[in-house]
Design brief:
mainly alpha; 15 helices
Length: 365
């Protein structure tokens, strides 16, 4: 094991402990505390394998502390989502490594989402409500809003940076670049906003229709739905007696039963349907525009080669920040992800600049 593995376990222990501190549900908070203890135990074992001179665990990384700050602002559901993704990545990496080395897969490599569910199942005070709540929590989170912000800004920056460099190559950075850049910003942002509105609206309409069908089934055949729900929990590894007990408890309240069946059978999170399609479109427009305005800004104040150089530098800085932000979800090195994003962005811009240059020379001739 290397220092990266050790730091990953330390960070996970820290974040699970923070989730436990802010969780209002006592049962789920206890699950998080147990997960924190498990991760701390892994970290201590890794430290011994490293034969480190000190047996003191390192402090949480900058990434972990940043995620904690994000949790304080946006809610810790985002942090849980990132942890789940991290656990899955670690599990897949371990399985792939064993396959490459010809080692047997024991099943212990599976991600901690299953461990979380197992711990919850064993709690003495577990109820159908607890389980349904936890299932909806870990299924609905994942830092989606933060990912959307990062990816939206990246789309705007890369696409408009490439457009601006293409026009700059054809016109040597004169006034036409500003007009094209602003037009590209508006066109791209409006397209993204419309696409987001259509996506959210169509999904809502489809899911609402499926949810209504599920509601009708509960009213016409409650016994069948109860058996179906019990089978779903049994398929997850819950003992038959406990699964039937949980299903019976849930079906006592038809409204709650409908919510649970929608999540478990249809894989729909009703909370996500409450979002406004127009609000999603506006956010998409703003996020794209924030990224797209970066390469255009220098052309508001200057032109020619100077504006092109400043635009490239500003865009490179923006690309590095976006690449760094992505590491909040991937856990990769900030420098690696940041410079990778810069290289890809500059490469795309260089291609369009070269094409623009050829077109400009051709037109001039």
């Amino acid at each position: 094991m290397n220092n990266k593995n050790l730091q990953t376990e330390v960070d996970a222990s820290f974040l699970y402990s923070r989730l436990a501190e802010v969780e209002e549900d006592i049962t789920i908070a206890n699950v998080f505390r147990q997960m924190s203890d498990i991760e701390k135990g892994h970290a201590e074992a890794f430290l011994k394998k490293l034969n480190a001179g000190s047996l003191v665990l390192p402090s949480p990384s900058f990434r972990a502390r940043t995620l904690d700050r994000i949790g304080k602002v946006f809610g810790y559901d985002y942090v849980l989502g990132v942890l789940m993704d991290t656990e899955k990545s670690i599990s897949n990496a371990l399985i792939n490594a064993k396959k490459q080395n010809g080692r047997s897969i024991t099943g212990a490599e599976t991600n901690h989402v299953k461990i979380l569910r197992s711990l919850l199942d064993k709690e003495s005070k577990v109820t159908g409500t607890n389980l349904a709540k936890f299932e909806s929590r870990h299924r609905s989170v994942g830092g989606n809003a933060l990912r959307a912000a990062v990816l939206g800004g990246n789309d705007g920056l890369v696409s408009n940076f490439s457009l601006v460099m293409g026009i700059a190559g054809a016109t040597a950075g004169q006034s036409g670049v500003l007009l094209a850049g602003v037009a590209g910003l508006l066109a791209g942002a409006l397209s993204m906003a419309l696409g987001e509105w259509i996506s959210v609206k169509s999904s809502q309409e489809l899911y609402e229709n499926q949810m209504q069908l599920e509601k009708d089934e509960i009213e016409t055949n409650p016994e069948g739905e109860e058996r179906e729900l019990a089978l779903i929990y049994m398929a997850k590894g819950i003992p038959e007696g406990q699964a039937r007990s949980i299903a019976a408890e849930i079906m006592l309240d038809t409204t709650h039963a409908h919510q649970v069946l929608v999540r478990e059978e249809l894989g729909i999170n009703p909370e996500e349907l409450k979002g406004s399609a127009m609000e999603a479109a506006i956010y998409s427009f703003i996020l794209f525009a924030i990224g797209a305005v970066i390469p255009v800004l220098p052309f508001f104040f200057t032109s020619g080669t100077q504006a092109i150089v400043i635009s490239v530098l500003c865009s490179a800085a923006g690309l590095f920040l976006i690449g760094s932000a992505i590491t909040l979800f991937t856990g990769k090195s900030i420098w690696f992800s940041g410079f990778r994003q810069v290289v890809f962005g500059l490469f795309a811009a260089a291609i369009t600049f070269g094409i623009g240059k050829l077109i400009g020379v051709s037109l001039a001739g």
